[in-house]
């Protein structure tokens, strides 16, 4: 099928929940993808921060093929070897002790909310259940995670929303302190906000959140679904801040493209979950965790975290040069290869123009262009992308 045919049939049969560009991607390799008409694009979207190792990374392809020949699925009634291996690599490379696997970022965050409440009720008191999240945050589309999401537009039409959430402005410690009430049990945030416009947490804020949580006996939850796994130039974004959270969620890049999520916690917190408390049929199944082991090994062994830091800095430098040329660019910001360009005008036409010219870009809200290429992107590919963007800005 060509682009036109896929789009026409898609409109007929697929539920209309996405504002999609009128093309279908049918093939990918590294930082390139091809549409159904054979046109090649440089991919600075990476499936929205999923393809950190690039498309069809040979280690991931090989691991999935080998696992598919052996065992797709068996159930968490039994121990699963690749799941155990992936948990071990995550624990050995983070501040956490135990891992629960699920299928998406929203599901990981649901698990984190449940774990925080379970822990708090057990250790802090039956009346501790409220979770403070940040304005402009994004945590998912299930009822609890869309409620945790600090943007009204995601709430509209879904009321009544689950109780027990409060919101505080990001990077404002005084406001956060004021939001803490008698029922608060946890603070949850993205160390670098993604959907909210690519907004890095300030060092004094993130450190201050840890101190506030310690002082008030609250759990500190980081949602690293988008900013984790090398994206910001460290394996986990919290590592930029010299703090250790109590709970962390992951998804997106964890499976190298295979759908998987994870919830990590310190031992004492993790122990609040006992057999029967939480579950997921597909969570951590052999196929996706084999992919996860391969993807995470590639990130760690192929220098992708350092490349993300180094090439990310170069990308920011190149975008700063554009800022001096184009008045409507207000700010360039980000960490590693999670970069945003805030404009004084809507960016949707720029995204469309870049697509026509062979560059896939993403927005983060109406005024921010978001750059999330694979972590093994080269300086030359950054030059190509920025040259296309400059043409799009000129036109
Ligand atoms: N948390 C963050 C920070 C995200 O960026 C996203 C997805 N954009 C999610 C959670 C939800 O992940 P999923 O779509 O896999 O449910």
TrEMBL record:
Cofactor note: Binds 1 pyridoxal phosphate per subunit.
DNA damage among keywords: no
EC class of the enzyme, as a word: transferase
Cofactor(s) listed: pyridoxal 5'-phosphate
EC number(s) stated in the UniProt entry for this protein: 2.6.1.11
Domain of life: Bacteria
Pfam families, sorted: Aminotran_3
Alphabetical list of Gene3D superfamilies matching this protein: Aspartate Aminotransferase, domain 1, Type I PLP-dependent aspartate aminotransferase-like (Major domain)
Quaternary context: Homodimer.
Protein name: Acetylornithine aminotransferase
Organism: Formimonas warabiya
Gene giving rise to this polypeptide: argD
